[in-house]
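User: I'm writing a tutorial on reading structure tokens. Could you give me a worked example: one chain, its sequence, then its tokens, then a sentence or two explaining what the tokens reveal?
Assistant: Sure. Here is the example chain.
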Amino acid sequence: GKSKDTLEHVQLLPMGQNKVLMILVTASGRVEHQMVDLKETIDGRELERISKILTQNLKNISSPTDMKARIERLQQNTREHIESINTFITNLSQNMNKPDEARAVLKGATNILEYNEFRDIDRAREILSLFEERNFIVELLSNQPIDERINITIGEENAMDAMKNCSIITATFQYQDGKSTSLGVIGPTRMNYAKVTAILAGLRESFKEIFEE
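And here are its predicted structure tokens:
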């Protein structure tokens, strides 16, 4: 049968408000990224230390039995941030078992309802229904150009009627094997473009540093 993919690298990035972006790279070059909610705040330096611990302890393990034993040993030797590390391990295990296909991870969709433009129930229902269609998100990000720019599509520039009151800001990073990862923010046309652009640019640079080592 097909050999089981193994973990190559873990990187944890602080996103504020007890949120951490967890990026996983496998030996086959597959990349997963997921937003993880914690019950504590961990600064960037400490997240870097935990990233190295997870990578060193869980790298290149193909056997589920070996992985389970290594995780148990890691948990026994953990003295700080025990609950957070367990949360990272749980998410890591779930992501490692996903099939390798085009995927979209959508977080915070209901936050858009906090803006006056989406207080209208029909408009809110329309945009949230669209968000529930994962193929829509994949298609939306797949259509973004792969270059060094941060791409911004504002209001009427969007092809879909339901997106005419939204703006989309995306950053795309291409790996050496030709595959790519896109990060994007969907919000009202009056969102803080400078702030969102700066965050996405920073995340893309973090991806580069991880994968071009």
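What the tokens reveal: The longest helix spans residues 193-211. The radius of gyration is 19 Å.
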